[in-house]
Specification:
249 residues, alpha/beta, Rossmann fold, Arc Repressor Mutant, subunit A, 2 domains, 5-stranded parallel β-sheet, 4-stranded antiparallel β-sheet, 9 helices, 16 strands, 22% strand
């Protein structure tokens, strides 16, 4: 049976995960953020938020400090460090809503755990919105960005890919797969994650789409004097390079 697709499970623009246990505050923020153009995914606790971070790959996470199943700072740390058997964007921006008595020490601790911004209660919604937009602007990829991994170079402005100076002509999904792998070149991305983020598949099922594209991409990036790219980890997924390749370059 062909896999089902659902655009909402692809990488979404302006998708915001809101972890807020207090129902009235969650409803207030969800309503106003939705009116301001965000696709809001509400969560009542930190563990539920981590599940959604893994499933939906949001553009930003908004954490209430005091969650029923732990501190927002601990969940922020878990996002940044990653966990065995789980896959999410460890660089996803995080804003923490601190308690009313938060001081400079609390803010420093939040930043040490990896949050991108910290806003104490009570807060004005317009200021929160401005901070969300400012964080998203900071992490937005620059149009002229160049990615370089060993002998591989990607000019994101022109979509030109070269290996050892030679141009590699890639089809659309091959290029998108390359960008995903290059976003963290030593990391092994699971097959389900790649099918979801590159193709938007909600239920991967039985499909050779990823394997066939990865094989073609590997072949197009192969050069006699270059290191191999697109490494297959049988039963798990793909990485762009072996870890020591980047360190040796």
């Amino acid at each position: 049976m062909a896999p089902q697709t659902d655009a909402s499970f692809a990488v979404m623009s302006n998708a915001l995960l809101l972890a807020e246990p207090e129902a009235s505050t969650r409803t207030f923020l969800e309503r106003h953020l939705s009116n301001d153009g965000f696709e809001v995914m509400p969560a009542g606790g930190g563990c539920e938020a981590l599940e959604l971070v893994e499933q939906t790959q949001p553009d930003l996470v908004l954490f209430e400090m005091a969650l029923p199943d732990g501190s927002a700072l601990d969940f922020c740390r878990r996002i940044r460090e990653g966990e065995p058997g789980r896959s999410w964007n460890r660089r996803v921006p995080v804003i923490v809503l601190g308690e009313a008595d938060a001081d400079a020490v609390d803010r420093v601790r939040a930043f040490d755990r990896g949050c991108d911004d910290f806003l104490s209660r009570p807060f004005v919604y317009d200021e929160l919105l401005a901070r969300i937009r400012a964080v998203l602007r900071r992490v937005k990829p620059v149009g002229e960005e160049r990615i370089e991994v060993a002998e591989l170079s990607v000019d994101c402005a022109t979509r030109r890919v070269t290996v050892c100076g030679d141009t590699a002509a890639l089809a659309g999904k091959e290029y998108e797969l390359l960008l995903k792998l290059a976003s963290d070149p030593e990391r092994v991305f699971t097959k389900d994650e790649l099918l979801r983020d590159v193709w938007g598949f909600r239920s991967p099922g039985r499909t050779r789409t990823l394997d066939s594209h990865a094989s073609r991409l590997r072949r197009k990036l192969t050069r006699p004097d270059a290191r191999p790219f697109v490494v297959n980890r049988w039963g798990v997924g793909y990485a762009l390079v072996e870890g020591e390749q980047v360190r040796a370059a």
